[in-house]
Amino acid sequence: MATASVSFKSREDHRKQLELEEARKAGLAPAELDEDGKEINPHIPQYMSSAPWYLNAQRPSLKHQRKWKSDPNYTKSWYDRGAKIYQAEKYRKGACENCGAMTHDKKSCMERPRKTGAKFTNMHIAPDEKVESFELDYDGKRDRWNGYDPTTYSRVIEQYEAREEARRKYLKEQQLKKLEEKNGKNEEEEASSEEEEDEDKVDEAKVDESKQMDFAKVEKRVRTTGGGSTGTVRNLRIREDTAKYLLNLDVNSAYYDPKTRSMREDPLPDMDPNEKFYSGDNQNRLSGQALEFKQLTVHSHEAFEKGQDIHMQAAPSQAELLHRNYKIIKEKLKSQTKDTIVEKYGNAASDEALPRELLLGQSEREIEYDRTGRIIKGQDMSLPKSKYEEDIFINNHTSVWGSWWKDHQWGYKCCHQTVRNSYCTGTAGIEAAEAVNDLMRANIARKEASDEKPVQQEEKRLATWGTEVPEDLVLDKKLLADALKKEDERKKEERDERKRKYNVKWNDEVTAEDMEAYRMKKIHHDDPMKDFLN
């Protein structure tokens, strides 16, 4: 598809554009038109159809693929042979001394040399030739057939046609002469009857020869500007058949592609299929040998993907043979599977005869329905069966798993167990479970009654620094808070020495609270959270 210019498109617009291109290629949508109203072939690749950005094309077109830079000075015309301009009555100064024409001199004159030239006789002055000059382009200078008139070759064609006509006429005369000789040899009694037959034969031989000649004639197209030398044999298609594009003249009907001469959809979908002779080209693709070839191709691709050395184009005979063997093996497996099922379950259709009421479609059973269609009387409601196995009891259970529910847990109804695939304990298990539950409830109630509120004791903060710390050492919270403030002030002085005072008094007495404050403010280099401490 020819694109006018490169522009941003959303994903939805791009998807719609791709769908439209596929529809145009399949013939479901009409082809795109260019600026001149001509159809653009949808099968043209994008790198050929897209116009360069510097052309600033506003509409789709294929002009950039044509010769759009044409020089107006060049021409394709040719000399007007034999054209005359003017014929003088008397000799003119500077004209040809032989014929009297002004367009050439005596040396370049192509006329027969006269005994006395026109310069001296002043009679029979030749007309002036038409002199032209052309500026040809590169191809025009090297065109060997430039200026050639193809109609001149018609003389050669006429000679060959006359020779062919004479040959056919001679053969016809020889045939008639043989028939006359054969008629003269017969007896007079049979002459009358045979003459009539011979006359019929002669009449048949004299049938319109033009039709027979046209049928066997090979029309040849000579070299022209439209193409080369080709032989076109007469088309044997019955001209009474209606062309496919004339079956339905509706504009919105099936699309006809003139290049490939294909119409994939059905032009008359509402017509009786027994009366129409054409149902679209897609019908041929889904029937006959086309469908078999499609199945063969799919089988070869699938076999190649599974590891078999098979190729449809390289070895078509091998691919067809493998496909044939595959179909035979498939039919055998299908019949074996069927025989196995019949052998295991039987074949009710062939072994047992159907009941009489089913054969006749009626019975004496009476069934009553209500207004909603439900059965009231005459037939029991049948429970629908699932595809899973039902009523299968394991481990001595008499019910299935999920038949009992309690405290958000599933279990067995027969023994009230919530452990799946456990062994059934029956009624004794139910009684034992109830006894355990009663005992548990009694213990909980006794514990709640005997519990008393504990006496709240003051929390003691023990020191955790050093190795030789007495176990009964208790820190004072107030002294610890003061020690933490002093430690913060000491660290600030260490960061900025300008805040250190001149008269510094050192206190060598370290209390347990000071040691605990130092330990709490100390930075551990292995601590991953050390950067978040103040």
Automatic annotation (TrEMBL):
Biased composition (Acidic residues): 187-202
Pre-mRNA-splicing factor SLU7 domain segment(s): 136-403
GO CC list: spliceosomal complex
MF GO annotations: pre-mRNA 3'-splice site binding
Major place of residence: nucleus
Region (Disordered): 22-42, 180-214, 486-505
Gene Ontology biological process terms, A to Z: mRNA splicing, via spliceosome
UniProt keyword annotations, A-Z: mRNA processing, mRNA splicing, Nucleus, Spliceosome
Residues of the signal peptide: none
Presence of keyword Nucleus: yes
Biased composition (Basic and acidic residues): 203-214, 486-499
Location of the protein in the cell: Nucleus
Coiled coil location: none
Nucleus is among the record's keywords: yes
Subunit text: Associated with the spliceosome.
Job description of the protein: Involved in pre-mRNA splicing.
Family membership: Belongs to the SLU7 family.
Name of protein: Pre-mRNA-splicing factor SLU7
